[in-house]
């Protein structure tokens, strides 16, 4: 499926996301949607990640999401979660690790991956 099918794919994606929103509203539950990122090779670095990566799904995904998070690898076994788009949360980052007991505080106490 190439760019010629983009409008059709976006329409189906929008329909699916509206259905998820209705379920969330009806049952009072949170819906978590994961998304892939791809390299942006056509243009300067931009977007929420400040890099040459961008989430797939276009504006449909952005408008259907209330709070958007970006997850990336940090130093060692740490991971970094960044709030980059939310109506009620400031842009911020938190460092955490995933171990045998599940999600835990950062293993080195640092909040960045520099």
From TrEMBL:
<feature type="domain" description="RecA family profile 2">
    <location>
        <begin position="46"/>
        <end position="108"/>
    </location>
</feature>
<comment type="similarity">
    <text>Belongs to the RecA family.</text>
</comment>
<dbReference type="GO" id="GO:0007131">
    <property type="term" value="P:reciprocal meiotic recombination"/>
</dbReference>
<feature type="region of interest" description="Disordered">
    <location>
        <begin position="95"/>
        <end position="114"/>
    </location>
</feature>
<dbReference type="GO" id="GO:0000730">
    <property type="term" value="P:DNA recombinase assembly"/>
</dbReference>
<dbReference type="GO" id="GO:0140664">
    <property type="term" value="F:ATP-dependent DNA damage sensor activity"/>
</dbReference>
<dbReference type="GO" id="GO:0000150">
    <property type="term" value="F:DNA strand exchange activity"/>
</dbReference>
<protein>
    <submittedName>
        <fullName>DNA repair protein rhp51-like protein</fullName>
    </submittedName>
</protein>
<feature type="compositionally biased region" description="Basic and acidic residues">
    <location>
        <begin position="102"/>
        <end position="114"/>
    </location>
</feature>
<dbReference type="GO" id="GO:0000794">
    <property type="term" value="C:condensed nuclear chromosome"/>
</dbReference>
<dbReference type="GO" id="GO:0042148">
    <property type="term" value="P:DNA strand invasion"/>
</dbReference>
<dbReference type="GO" id="GO:0003697">
    <property type="term" value="F:single-stranded DNA binding"/>
</dbReference>
<dbReference type="GO" id="GO:0005524">
    <property type="term" value="F:ATP binding"/>
</dbReference>
<dbReference type="GO" id="GO:0006312">
    <property type="term" value="P:mitotic recombination"/>
</dbReference>
<dbReference type="GO" id="GO:0003690">
    <property type="term" value="F:double-stranded DNA binding"/>
</dbReference>
<dbReference type="InterPro" id="IPR027417">
    <property type="entry name" value="P-loop_NTPase"/>
</dbReference>
<dbReference type="InterPro" id="IPR020587">
    <property type="entry name" value="RecA_monomer-monomer_interface"/>
</dbReference>
<dbReference type="InterPro" id="IPR020588">
    <property type="entry name" value="RecA_ATP-bd"/>
</dbReference>
<feature type="domain" description="RecA family profile 1">
    <location>
        <begin position="1"/>
        <end position="37"/>
    </location>
</feature>
<dbReference type="Pfam" id="PF08423">
    <property type="entry name" value="Rad51"/>
</dbReference>
<keyword id="KW-0547">Nucleotide-binding</keyword>
<dbReference type="GO" id="GO:0070192">
    <property type="term" value="P:chromosome organization involved in meiotic cell cycle"/>
</dbReference>
<dbReference type="InterPro" id="IPR013632">
    <property type="entry name" value="Rad51_C"/>
</dbReference>
<keyword id="KW-0067">ATP-binding</keyword>
